[in-house]
UniProtKB/TrEMBL annotation:
Signal peptide positions (record): none
Lineage of source species: Eukaryota, Viridiplantae, Streptophyta, Embryophyta, Tracheophyta
Coiled-coil stretches noted in the UniProt entry, renumbered to this chain: none
Protein name in the entry: Uncharacterized protein
Annotated compartments: Nucleus
Keyword match Transcription regulation: yes
Amino acid sequence: MGRGKVVLERIENKINRQVSFSKRRNGLLKKAYELHFESKSLFRVLILNTIVERYRQSTYALQNNNVEGEEPQNLILEIPKLKAKYESLQRTERHFHGENLEELGLKELQNLEKRLDRTLSQARQHKELLHVMMPQTFIPNLPYSIYTCIKDPYM
């Protein structure tokens, strides 16, 4: 007995949406592998991450931003802001590497732990994906996207 028709609509809760995406992605990859195995066919699965869209948008914005037309005074005012941002990013990177943790409070340590757990989870998901779908090649025009190709070595 089947489930019946499922109504497709956007999942508003971010966590539920991510869980649903992960399950559907894994099911899709499993189905592609099974079809390949049964029919000796070539399948390509393209999975785009939101990082790709951010990269595209920022690249487009940079290409359309004409820095030559800006006043030198505005650029000079931006230098301290950029230096502060750079120092903040360096401090965060040191924390990720386990250095200078004594300067963090309890709440900051908890936030760091959550971020590290998320990063570890994403790395494990990517590793699992690589084990399921081999070999893999990357599309040069789409950074951070995964272009997986399942091939039969005897074809």
